[in-house]
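Customer ticket, subject: "Can you confirm the structure for AMP-dependent synthetase/ligase domain-containing protein?"

Message body: Hello, I'm evaluating your service for our small team and ran a test protein. I'd like someone to confirm that this is what the system normally returns, since I don't have a reference to compare against.
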Amino acid sequence: SGHHSILIPPSEVEINPALWLSAVSQYKVRDTFCSYGVMELCTKGLGSSVNQLKSKGINLACVRTCVVVAEERPRINLSNSFSKLFSALGLSPRAVSTSFGCRVNIAICLQGASSPEPSTVYVDLRALRNDRVSLVERGSPHSLLDGVRQTAARRQSDNG
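Agent reply: Thanks for trying us out. I re-ran your input and got the following:
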């Protein structure tokens, strides 16, 4: 029982993209975090090596959530490519999701969208309008009120 953290320096992943996947498999990690950079390194660097990884016993079926921590626009094609490529190693496509603007508040991302227990969080409306998530206390100025539903969508403009 308890919580253990495995930290892998980015420079090591750059040298050996399979290192992160190997660690996740070896320690049967259920909840993991990465960046789009790591995802890209794994996808480009290991795209032709999936069968070799499989023969080495790399198994990602243990992963319940793989959260990509980002402060940029969604890279849906990259996420889909990563999920599809490593599904051959047992990674569930439903496990991969992206968290935006939550580097400081990363623990909130551990609960997946399929969780039966909802969590209530209060976010700063001004930050949300600027594509950022800033958690605030209930009743804080500019916080979304209880019962208000907010959907963040990519704004499209006709004239740019």
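A couple of notes from the result: Strands lie at 31-34, 65-70, 96-100. The two ends are 53 Å apart (CA to CA). Feel free to reply with more questions.
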